[in-house]
Design brief:
heterodimer, A: 311 residues, mainly alpha, flat, B: 335 residues, 16 helices, 0% strand, elongated
């Protein structure tokens, strides 16, 4: 276990370094820097642009800039956002809480996929299974951002109201504002959970210990709950590992459409304004989240499934 | 997508079945009708047909796949003929304003006579743009599939066949791609390079081959230990020849199914990116960027919101259904 952890940590650090270097070099070597979007405003003189470039360190040669950026990044200092003139990590910290709420709600909704999957598996090939299969295929083919647009159009046509932003104030408004974007995000998760649970349950249903349980005369309900579900759902832990990276950017489109003040929208804003320090910081944080998420999932998996050995 | 494909791979490994081994033994298809004489006619006919013949036989009896194929065919045909249809039937151009019956420019006109699906804020006909956008969206889907399949199959073949260092390097590259949030990377690359249709396809393809490579690698790992591969090696065949002649056919059916899901994923991804304004740039129309203006206009022009999204949905649904049908038809274990 210790050697496994150490090896994985080194691997993760290496991956993170690779991704950071790659994005940094990409951002720096391509022509048309931030001045094309941010600095190119009315009344900007050539001298102003030069002064700004100097101040943001954009005139440093690439290797020097890289060493500077990396050195600071290790100390979690990503410079200052061009647009907000604040440290990117502060901005991310502010925006992560709304993202957390939205995604948490979406995951709660997504959980309904688990009973759907069990239902489909126990009625394999019969109408409930076929209906659920149609639902998953249709759900997969729907662009969920388009569904968001359609819902906004329908809501505003028939009620004159549609959710915009985070709805502060009383819990009622908060709920009204979160439920629609969360459902749209959640639908994709329902589909993923349902399909995953179905295939898992089908696999477990065919195993010997299930036959033994049935032979003992246990009711079908007890067999499903105690002998099938418990085994079928252990791999779900790995899905939860995906929650962490999903948090940062998983909802960029939905957040953008509903004006939800989360990290996904922060990234879209940064991309639109070519806010390089902010872009690089978000990518780094998101990559870190992915790596930590998978590592955590692997570790937890070892606890819930005794057959897994780390080597 | 990857979950189901992984399951298929796992099942194949469990059964010790490499892809389509039967492909090698190709019985004479012409003899098949003679076999249909007695007993279970269907079964006899099926067993006489060889691998792809049998798949086709199964596909022909699968109404869902056939309908999906027909609908997709109609969509492809309509977009291929888009310039002809719009010029000679609708008398419109995708990027010019249309005039209403009163001779004025028709801006934000609702669906009705003259404009089947209405016009947008610049007075362009929505049907015309929808058809032309389809050309762009479908070509991107197809191009991405070709690019990511070529890279993925080559990488998977090399990784599985050579193993060792080659395998490690390829796996490391896949790891890097998988660990960067792809939407972020796509947006950054698009902001930096301002790619056109081809450029976008290359970006999508280059970021999307990891899954294909892993699946191909899995199949190759089991196929390279088969006796006839050893025989080819003994006979002095070169690595390239063995990979192309003896191992590639095993991978063919997996690649065919993955291709479908690649097209679907690319169309969805492109539309999302274009909707955000980071994909296909105006005035070139794509199903995604036709929707990007609609959010600000929806109170005045709700009709602009439905058609492009519906086209994405129908196209992706058809492609997924066909890929699903192909998977069932090509799976030698399903009779």
């Amino acid at each position: 276990m210790r050697t496994f952890l150490i090896r994985r940590l080194i691997q993760s650090a290496l991956l993170l370094w690779l991704v950071m270097t790659m994005t940094f070099v990409l951002v720096r070597v391509t022509p048309g820097g931030p001045e094309s979007a941010f600095l190119n405003q009315e009344g900007m003189e050539k001298a102003d642009i030069d002064r700004m470039r100097e101040r943001f360190g954009l005139n440093d040669p690439l290797p020097l800039a890289y060493v500077k950026w990396m050195g600071n990044a290790i100390r979690l200092d990503f410079g200052r956002s061009y647009h907000y003139l604040r440290p990117p990590l502060d901005l991310i910290r502010e925006r992560i809480w709304p993202s957390l709420q939205l995604q948490g709600m979406a995951w709660l909704i997504g959980m309904t996929g688990i009973p759907l999957g069990v239902l489909a598996a126990s009625y394999r090939g019969r109408p409930p299974d076929i209906l659920i299969r149609i639902f998953t295929v249709v759900g997969d083919a729907t662009p969920n951002w388009w569904m968001a647009l359609v819902i906004i159009v329908l809501l505003s046509t028939y009620t004159g109201w549609f959710p915009q932003g985070q709805g502060r104030g009383n819990p009622g408004t908060w709920f009204m504002h979160i439920i629609i974007p969360a459902s749209i995000l959640g639908l994709g998760l329902v589909v993923a959970f349902a399909r995953f649970t179905r295939s898992q349950v089908l696999e477990i249903l065919g195993q010997d210990h299930v036959r033994t349980a049935r032979a003992k005369g246990l009711t079908e309900g007890v067999v499903t709950n105690r002998h099938v579900l418990r085994n079928a759902l252990t791999p779900a832990v790995t899905i939860f590992g995906g929650l962490l990276p999903f948090l940062i950017g998983g909802a960029a489109l939905t957040e953008g459409i509903f004006n939800w003040p989360g990290t996904g929208r922060l990234f879209l804003e940064a991309a639109n304004t070519r806010d390089y320090p902010l872009l690089l910081a978000i990518i780094t944080v998101a990559t870190m989240a992915t790596l930590i998420g998978t590592l955590l999932a692997d570790i937890i998996y070892g606890f819930v499934d005794p057959r897994v050995r780390y080597s | 997508m990857s979950a189901t494909a992984d399951a298929a791979e796992a099942a194949r490994k469990r059964d010790g079945l490499p892809g389509g081994v039967e492909h090698a033994a190709q019985p004479d298809g012409a003899a098949a009708p003679a076999l249909v004489l007695e007993g279970n006619a269907t079964r006899r006919a099926v067993t006489g047909l060889g691998f792809y013949g049998r798949a086709w036989f199964k596909l022909r009896r699968d109404p869902t796949t056939l309908i999906a194929g027909a609908v997709l065919g109609i969509i492809i045909l309509a977009t291929l003929l888009a310039p002809l249809i719009t010029q000679h039937v609708l008398h419109t151009e995708p990027n010019t304003m249309v005039r209403g019956p009163d001779g004025r420019f028709a801006i934000l006109k609702g669906p009705g006579a003259g404009f089947l699906l209405g016009t947008d804020d610049l007075g362009r006909d929505a049907v015309t743009r929808l058809l032309h956008a389809g050309r762009v969206s479908l070509s991107i889907g197809f191009l991405v599939m070709v690019i990511s399949l070529s890279i993925g199959t080559t990488a998977g073949l090399a990784a599985g066949y050579f193993g060792g260092k080659v395998d490690d390097v390829i796996n490391a590259i896949i790891q890097v791609i998988f660990n960067v949030p792809s939407l972020f990377l796509l947006i950054i690359l698009s902001v930096l390079f301002r790619p056109g249709v081809i450029g976008l396809s290359i970006i999508f393809g280059v970021l999307g081959w990891g899954g294909t490579a892993r699946q191909v690698r899995g199949v190759v790992l089991s196929a390279r230990n088969l006796d006839y591969v050893a025989a080819a090696q003994v006979l002095g065949a070169s690595n390239v020849r063995i990979m192309a002649q003896h191992i590639l056919p095993n991978v063919a059916n997996i690649v065919l199914v993955v291709a479908g899901f690649d097209v679907a994923g690319a169309i969805l991804g492109e539309s999302a990116l274009s909707f955000l304004g980071f994909g296909v740039q105006v005035p070139t129309a794509s199903w995604g960027n036709m929707l990007s203006g609609s959010q600000d206009l929806f109170r005045r022009a709700p009709w602009l919101v439905y058609p492009p999204g519906a086209m994405i949905f129908i196209t992706v649904l058809c492609v997924v259904l066909i890929a699903d049908g192909l998977r069932d038809a090509l799976d030698p274990r399903v009779k």
